[in-house]
Amino acid sequence: xxxxxxxxxxxxxxxxxxxxxxxxxxxxxxxxxxxxxxxxxxxxxxxxxxxxxxxxxxxxxxxxxxxxxxxxxxxxxxxxxxxxxxxxxxxxxxxxxxxxxxxxxxxxxxxxxxxxxxxxxxxxxxxxxxxxxxxxxxxxxxxxxxxxxxxxxxxxxxxxxxxxxxxxxxxxxxxxxxxxxxxxxxxxxxxxxxxxxxxxxxxxxxxx
Length: 208
Description:
Helix content: 10-25%
Mean pLDDT: 80
Oligomer: single chain
Structural class: alpha+beta
């Protein structure tokens, strides 16, 4: 008998022995796959637990309206509402909104700003009712009426913050005097010095 025939007989014998052993153990042997009845399926396999996922959402910051001042068609300042985060309603964020300038819609209605778009607010603090506004050097490049108008915009906007009675200016950290409506140079400016640019109250009976 060749080795090939001997190996085939051993393999057949092993299969027969395995079938006999399974029959002896009481395990039924099906000729083809069959479906199990539901009552024979182990508990938990019919309705496995679905994986749970947790979604973490970051709440949007709550915002509050503040007033910033632009120049209207008549040359007077006009208050415009801007929203700033309630968590940081400080003078810096308010002046950032001012420097950003009018929206396209506001510009189309005639509002404009004397502040250069390149101006950056380096910082703004309030101490004992006096606001100190630190701006980049581009603010100092303004001369004549545009400089007075830009100062007025900052003064009126800063004075909208509770407790602010006057404003001092700095260029890159260096204190400077600024012009008021009369043309005088002052170290501390307040809204009373810009009466000719002050917002015009709507006539009685007119919409605000």
